[in-house]
Structures are given as C-alpha cells and as structure tokens.
C-alpha cells in the first residue's frame, strides 16, 4: 500500500500524447497549430488593447468582451508550451504537479469563459429590455463585482478537483491521451477508486456549463419575447443584430465542450484521433474565432481595431 501511495508524489512523470499514429508528421502538423495560436494570441490581445485604449469602448458590453478575450488568452497560453513542445521537440514528459497546475488553469479559464458568456447574455437582455436603465443597472462597480464573482466561482469549483486528484495512486500506465492535462484523462490512469472524483467532476460540469447554458437559453427566450413586442421591423432587426456575435461565441464554446465530455464518458470505442481532434478543437476554436466574429459582426470593434492598426484608415 505504501508503494501505491508513493506514486502520487511529485516524482511521478506523465507522458503527453500528440496525434496518435501521426508522430512522424508532428513537425508538419505543428504548422497549422502555430498559425492557430498566433491568430488566437494576436486577435485577443488586439481586441483587449483596443478596448483599453479607446474611450468609445468603455461600456459594459465591451468590458465583458475584454473579459472574454482575457479568458481566451488564458486558455491559449495554458496549452501553448506542452502542445508545441510535443510537435517540435517530442517533449512529452510532464511532472505530476505541473500537470495538476495545467489542468487547474485550463478548467478554471473554461469555467470563467462559460460565466462570462452568461454575463454577456444578461448584458444583452438588459440592453434590449431596459435600454434607458442600462447604464444605471450595469455600473462600473457592478461589472467589477461580476468579474470578481466569475474568478471566485471558477477557483472554488476547480480546487476540489485538484485536491481529490492528489489523493489518488497511479500505478498503471502514465500515458495521457491528449497534448495537455485534462481531468477525466488523468483520473482514468489511477488504480484506486475514482468514483468520488468522477462524481465531483460531473457535478462541476453540470453546475457550470450546464447551469450557465440553461440561463443563457432563458435569457434569449426573454430577449426574443421582448424583441417581438417591438412594432418596427427595422428596430427588431437592429435589436437581433446586437446578439449575433454573442450567439456565435456561445455556439463555438459549448459545442466542442459538450462533445469532448460525451466522448470521454461514452466514446470509449471511438478512434484515438477523434479524441485528439475534439480535445484540440475544445481549446483552440473559441480563442481563434471569437476575435474574428466580434471584429466582423461588431462595427464599433472593427473601427477600434482599424484605429489601432491603421490610424489613418479609421478616419476614412
């Protein structure tokens, strides 16, 4: 029993996995991944910089967008080193504590992104249903409080997962199935009872993404009800257009997240590359596409980005 307990010490080394069966092509596979990381980091940094430096964007909607860009940057940075390390240098080894830290931050930023998307849905509801009271409801102090609540919520939910993993023994294979540390993946390698870990992990997923998605849907039910009560077709179209970017952000976040959770729990017979594809999409698609969606669909963001990149172009 003492031997099993020793396997939970910091001396444990996990082995990360790139793309199963395509190890010989990792260098070539790294090219699109590099492009995606560059796009995610530069796009979100640019939007964040534009919101901070442009006074015209100092409004609740764009404060929430800056939170979304911050969480996307966090997700990208959390996996950048291990993923590219595997593709470039075949650096698959990662210590137990480093793996726990990476898992914590990946899932922390995931919970934070879900919370931010819910806050943005509330923002759209207030803007459409009570436009005259919008500024008085979503004050700067209220937005700061929401931001603190989002960070606190994520930390409180993810900390038990880390503590429960530390109590496990790992006497089987130490080979993980992704290029980063993921809670269900680490849990499966344990040779001790993981029913508590599984229950807590599922509870965390339901109380975050599950609850948030229900409230987002409810928010849009109220938004649609409010918009349909507007007499003018032009005003209806304008009201709906302010929600398009947020709906896109919700879709590209929740679809890969739900797909990955289902594959881990019910897709044991699926080919390894399916797990790899969905796992990478879960982390890379939202950070890559969110800046593009908001830049294309939101005129104010597009103008602000142009002003940052080309001051002369913004005047045209």
Automatic annotation (TrEMBL):
Location within or outside the cell: Cell membrane; Membrane
Topology class, membrane: Multi-pass membrane protein
Top-level taxon: Eukaryota
GO biological process: cellular response to lipid
Any single Pfam family the record assigns to this protein: 7tm_4
Positions of the G-protein coupled receptors family 1 profile domain: 43-294
Main location: membrane
Annotated GO CC locations: plasma membrane
This protein's UniProt keywords: Cell membrane, G-protein coupled receptor, Membrane, Olfaction, Receptor, Sensory transduction, Transducer, Transmembrane, Transmembrane helix
GO terms for MF: G protein-coupled receptor activity; olfactory receptor activity
Transmembrane spans: 35-52, 64-89, 101-122, 143-165, 196-223, 244-267, 273-293
Known role: Putative odorant or sperm cell receptor.
Family listed: Belongs to the G-protein coupled receptor 1 family.
Protein name: Olfactory receptor
Organism, scientific name: Mustela putorius furo
